[in-house]
Amino acid sequence: MGLLTGLFAFLYHLPQIYKWLLKPYYITSFLLTISFVVVRKTPGLCEHLVTQREDGNSCDFDWRELEILMFLSAIVMMKNRRATFVMTCQPPLYMGPEYIKYFSDKTIDEELQRDSRVTWLVEFYANWSSDCQSFAPIFANLSLNYNCAGLRFGKIDIGRYEEVSKKYRVSTSPLAKQLPSVLLFQGGREVMRRPMVDSKGRAVSWTMNEENIIREFNLNELFQKSKKLNKSHGSKEEEQNGSQPQEGGEELPPDTDSVEQPKESKKDQ
């Protein structure tokens, strides 16, 4: 029963898997992974390769090459559990559209405390982390859909600013598995974060995708509240602008009803 459930789940998510894998860097990684084996086993190509085998057969692997391949495969699987049988390269940096404010160690506190009515969703990341690079387009898409005057999105590279990492208790250690971390700030104070951290300083297992971010941080409700805040703030500004006369403008003509009209004489009557 468990095998059938897993098979049906795989078939159900198969279109998403194809969409995820059909990207230039994954295709390039796969081609580079199999290129060495293909060249060594293709007649007409492998015969021209240099070999150190005693029999001079360059189309077969010797024991040294097998050991090197096994060693590299073990290193890749230990470093990245997702790369199980394919040596994948890191995805390229995201360069698409976004509504994100990038902080530094000198500006993050000032921006978070500038306006207590503004809610900030801040991603703590590091450029060397492959998980952060994979999450970058997801966070950018959230900023495009939910950014407004009352709900802002920000990012800070804690790989460069270690003091910020210590202050906000986000570890950059690969063993902690805390990168990337998304923190919600209201009134300059942290309200919640994902992933959560246990007593040992390790991140609690949690899938960092768009659906979970929207659900856990309740972005739909926050966005609606922020829109109401924007409308009320805009109406107040209009009232203030309307009550103050414009400089250099002409004075309004007096109301004819409020001005006392001269009485008619008996002759005119």
From TrEMBL:
Residues 76-231 form the Thioredoxin domain. One of its GO terms (biological process) is brain development. Pfam families: Thioredoxin (PF00085). SUPFAM superfamilies: Thioredoxin-like. The keyword Repeat does not apply. Transmembrane segments: none annotated. Residues 248-258 have a biased composition (Acidic residues). One of its GO terms (molecular function) is disulfide oxidoreductase activity. GO terms for cellular component: mitochondrial membrane. It is found in: Mitochondrion membrane. It is a single-pass type I membrane protein. Residues 228-269 are annotated as: Disordered. Residues 260-269 have a biased composition (Basic and acidic residues). InterPro entries: Thioredoxin-like_sf (IPR036249), Thioredoxin_domain (IPR013766), TMX2 (IPR039101), TMX2_thioredoxin_dom (IPR037463). Keywords: Membrane, Signal, Transmembrane, Transmembrane helix. PANTHER family: THIOREDOXIN-RELATED, THIOREDOXIN-RELATED TRANSMEMBRANE PROTEIN 2. This is Thioredoxin-related transmembrane protein 2a. It comes from Neolamprologus brichardi. The lineage of its organism: Eukaryota, Metazoa, Chordata, Craniata, Vertebrata.
